[in-house]
């Protein structure tokens, strides 16, 4: 073959190589991590491990489990519920690959994304807005009354811990001690007079009010526009989302069904939550406590994504992180909006955080 005959083939090969290199160079972090279009032949997962807390702020999960809503939507996929007591533990499970999807607080969701360099998790839905309060001893009438005293939050770096420490910083209360204590122990220590108060999710804020004589000093709703802020969201491992989009949509249909039940039949929703809490903790809530807890929350699949940049900055103000992470790529609402569209419901906004 002559040189003239070989030249077109060489040019074609070179062009193909350059095209490939350009494509590789053009890939962003989000492209590599989770924005790729899932394969058309992606099969449902054999199993999905679903994390949640035994809290009223995780009512969507508790209702879905009690009423078999997730199981119904998942079909042949095995559902394995996994209980956690605080967000940082669940983050470790997600990043370690022992959990697939989790109901989790907004703070730990941000941390999971940041710790993995924006690679390993995606926020795919909201679950609960509201449902967190700073409750205190009756004699505490203002922020200044807390000086020199001790208050509690569930765990270092969790959603309520960040909210508490940010509020203390805003009010220049550097002399207030913060202890990270399990919610049940917080109730006991408050009764014993060892704590002046605690920033807690539901139902624990209501338990301190009804069972231990606390009063509300701050309802976190007061600190956010329209009283809306994401207390609980749904996070998924990026790899699981890529490999099993059908299973992810099935779980989200279960979330939507649980929220719809709560909206149309609140009594049945409360009973379902109480049944699960009794199974998980050995004790159900009194009617007064669960009624009060439900008045403070809104079950919604909207993750209120536009709030997340402020939540990330709050971690810095609270002294939890040195700098706020870049949250571009955190949110992927493709599966959720497909589910909402199929149900005839409005789509939700990604707050500009989709990669």
TrEMBL record:
<dbReference type="GO" id="GO:0042626">
    <property type="term" value="F:ATPase-coupled transmembrane transporter activity"/>
</dbReference>
<keyword id="KW-0813">Transport</keyword>
<keyword id="KW-0997">Cell inner membrane</keyword>
<keyword id="KW-0732">Signal</keyword>
<keyword id="KW-1003">Cell membrane</keyword>
<keyword id="KW-0472">Membrane</keyword>
<comment type="similarity">
    <text>Belongs to the bacterial solute-binding protein SsuA/TauA family.</text>
</comment>
<dbReference type="GO" id="GO:0005886">
    <property type="term" value="C:plasma membrane"/>
</dbReference>
<protein>
    <submittedName>
        <fullName>NitT/TauT family transport system substrate-binding protein</fullName>
    </submittedName>
</protein>
<dbReference type="Pfam" id="PF13379">
    <property type="entry name" value="NMT1_2"/>
</dbReference>
<dbReference type="InterPro" id="IPR044527">
    <property type="entry name" value="NrtA/CpmA_ABC-bd_dom"/>
</dbReference>
<dbReference type="GO" id="GO:0042597">
    <property type="term" value="C:periplasmic space"/>
</dbReference>
<dbReference type="InterPro" id="IPR010067">
    <property type="entry name" value="ABC_SsuA_sub-bd"/>
</dbReference>
<feature type="signal peptide">
    <location>
        <begin position="1"/>
        <end position="30"/>
    </location>
</feature>
């Amino acid at each position: 073959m002559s040189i003239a005959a070989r030249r077109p083939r060489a040019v074609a090969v070179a062009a193909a190589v350059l095209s490939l290199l350009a494509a590789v160079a053009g890939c962003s972090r989000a492209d590599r991590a989770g924005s790729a279009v899932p394969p058309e032949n992606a099969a449902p997962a054999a199993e999905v491990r679903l994390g949640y807390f035994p809290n009223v702020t995780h009512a969507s999960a508790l209702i879905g489990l009690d009423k078999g809503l997730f199981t119904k939507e998942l079909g042949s996929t095995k559902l394995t519920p996994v209980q956690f007591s605080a967000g940082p533990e669940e983050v470790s499970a997600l990043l370690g690959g022992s959990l697939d999807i989790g109901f989790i607080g907004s703070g730990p969701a941000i941390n999971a994304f940041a710790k993995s360099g924006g690679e390993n998790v995606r926020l795919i839905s909201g679950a609960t807005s509201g449902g967190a309060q700073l409750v205190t001893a009756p004699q505490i009438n203002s922020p200044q009354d807390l000086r020199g005293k001790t208050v509690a939050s569930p765990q270092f770096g969790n959603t309520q811990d960040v909210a508490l420490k940010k509020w203390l910083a805003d009010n220049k209360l550097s002399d207030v001690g913060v202890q990270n204590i399990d919610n049940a122990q917080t109730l006991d220590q408050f009764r014993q007079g060892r704590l002046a108060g605690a920033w807690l999710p539901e139902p624990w804020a209501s338990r301190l009010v009804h069972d231990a004589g606390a009063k509300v000093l701050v309802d976190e709703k007061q600190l956010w526009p329209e009283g809306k802020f994401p207390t609980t969201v749904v996070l998924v491992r990026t790899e699981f989302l890529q490999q099993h989009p059908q299973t992810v949509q099935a779980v989200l249909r279960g979330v939507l069904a649980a929220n719809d039940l709560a909206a149309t039949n609140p009594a049945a929703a409360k009973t379902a939550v109480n049944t699960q809490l009794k199974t998980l903790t050995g004790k159900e809530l009194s009617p007064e406590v669960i009624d009060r807890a439900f008045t403070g929350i809104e079950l919604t699949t909207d993750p209120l994504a536009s709030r997340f940049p402020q939540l990330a900055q709050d971690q810095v103000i609270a002294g939890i992180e040195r700098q706020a992470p870049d949250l571009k790529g955190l949110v992927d609402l493709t599966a959720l909006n497909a589910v909402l569209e199929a149900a005839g419901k409005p789509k939700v906004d990604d707050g500009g955080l989709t990669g």
